Structures are given as C-alpha cells and as structure tokens.
Amino acid sequence: MTRVALVTGGTRGIGAAISVALKAAGCKVAANYAGNDEAAQKFNAETGIPAYKWSVADYDACVAGIREVEADLGPIDILVNNAGITRDAMFHKMTLQQWREVIDTNLSGAFNMTHPLWGGMRDRKFGRIITISSINGQKGQAGQANYSASKAGEVGLTKALALEGARAGITVNNVCPGYIGTEMVRAVDEKVINERIIPQIPVGRLGEPEEIARCVVFLASDEAGFITGSTISANGGQYMA
Ligand code: NDP
After folding, report:
1. Mutational test site, ligand 1, from 14, 56, 80, max ligand atoms within 8 Å of CB
2. Main-chain phi, psi angles of 201, to 5 degrees
3. Which domains does the chain have, with CATH numbers?
4. Are 67 and 52 in contact (CB under 8 A)?
5. Which residue from 222, 33, 217 is spatially nearest to 232, judged by alpha carbons?
6. Non-local CB neighbours of 152 within 8 Å, separated by 6+ positions
7. Which residues form the Ketoreductase domain (predicted)?
8. What ipTM was assigned to the predicted interfaces of this complex?
9. What pLDDT sits at residue 66?
10. 82 lines ligand 1 (CB under 6 A)
C-alpha cells in the first residue's frame, strides 16, 4: 500500500533527507517549507518531490496547506514534524519575541500540524506521527532556554498523543538528534564545532541528515506499529537519556 507522507521543513537539511528517504521507501511525499523559495525549487528539481509553502506557526495556514496536499496526493498517513528554528540568547538577554518565535514554530507548529490531521487518522485507523525533537530538549542547553523548552515540550506532546492514539492505530514518536551537519549547525563558528562540539561526541564527528532520516523511515513503516511514545536518541553517544 502506498502511504502518503508530509514532511514539514522538508526541503532543506534533515527534512530534505527525510523526504528523500521516505520517497525511496515507496511513499508519496510532500515537503513543506517556510519561505526559502530558491532552496525549495532546487529541491523539487533534484528530487521530483512537490514543495508547499506555509508557516507551521500559523494554524489556519496549516489547515489550508494540508487540504491542498491531500487534494493532490490523497489522505496523509505519515506526518513528520521537522520544521524548527533557533533564536539563541542567554536567558538574561532573551527577548519575549525570541521566546515566542521558537515556541510558536517548534512546539505550536507540531500542534498546528498534528491537530488538523488527527481526526482523519483516527477515522482511517492508521497514522504515523514522528516529531524531530533534539538532544537539547533532553538535557537542556545554555543559550537555548526557548529552544530546549520547545523541544522538551515536543516530547511531552508525543507521549500524551501516543496514549490517545494507541487504540486508533496511530503511533506517535520522537527522534532526538544530536549535532547534525546542516546549515543550522554549520552556522556555528567552525572553530567552535571542531574544538568544543566534536570533542563532546563519543563517535568523534557530526551526524549526517541521512542518519536521522533512516530512523524516521523505520518509525513510519507499517512494521513499527508496536513502537509508540518512544524517543530514538541519535546523537553519537553524546547523551544517553
Ligand atoms: P534547517 O535550518 O537546515 O532547515 C529548517 C527547515 O525548516 C527549512 O526547510 C525551513 O524552511 C523549515 N522551517 C523553518 N521555519 C518554518 C516554519 N515556520 N514553517 C515551515 N517550515 C519552516 O534545520 P535542520 O535540518 O538543522 O533541523 C531540522 C529539525 O531538526 C529542527 O526541528 C531542528 O530543531 C532539529 N534538530 C536539528 C539538529 C541539528 O544538529 N541540525 C539537532 C537536533 C535537532 P525554509 O527552507 O523555507 O527556511
């Protein structure tokens, strides 16, 4: 059976690798993105995966976007809540705007995408919801109170929904990546990456987006029906939750 998958933030970084891996696994895939049209067009040209623009921080836009994807591809079976941003600052310097932007995109974004899809998944007695959280939601990170709170919130949301979805054939899980070599991490000074970040990672390197994508493909598969409310920590041994 061909499953339909929607990946938020699915045109760049980890999300792009997830979109490609789900397509390779036989799914019909739609990739959402926020505003980087150039990256989305390049991704679409290279992969043939359709890209849809809306902000996951906007509930009404999510409802409209989901409707458009379902009109094109059919009912969505697999949702990957991957879209995420950082607005780093030490807490004494963090603005309310930095707090809100990160919570609205990362945590409310997961709600805004999951909530409109939940009823259809319940009716069809099948669903796979996979949310990309973070090692920093598990252990906390200085300079990222907003991001760590949003990512820990995603784990709580996942566990509650796993209980509610269990009898309806919906599994709800997290993947918590450690440091992965995407633009989000490459934005950090290379010296900091080499001298401060990599020495904290027992395997001695950054992770690859494809390594996260493989976890998602497994959790999205029909065969993973007994796994719900779980977190896969893919962090090179940096933090063992
Ligand atoms: P990138 O910055 O490389 O890509 C982010 C993607 O999310 C882009 O496609 C972007 O769209 C999209 N996006 C951002 N805001 C919104 C929004 N409001 N609505 C819709 N889409 C949006 O991020 P990564 O690939 O590094 O990260 C992906 C996920 O993995 C995030 O949730 C992140 O927190 C998590 N993560 C990443 C780690 C890492 O080391 N990279 C470590 C742990 C967790 P556009 O292209 O239009 O800007």
Report:
1. 14
2. -105, 110
3. 4-233 (3.40.50.720)
4. no
5. 217
6. 133, 137, 138
7. 3-178
8. 0.99
9. 98
10. yes
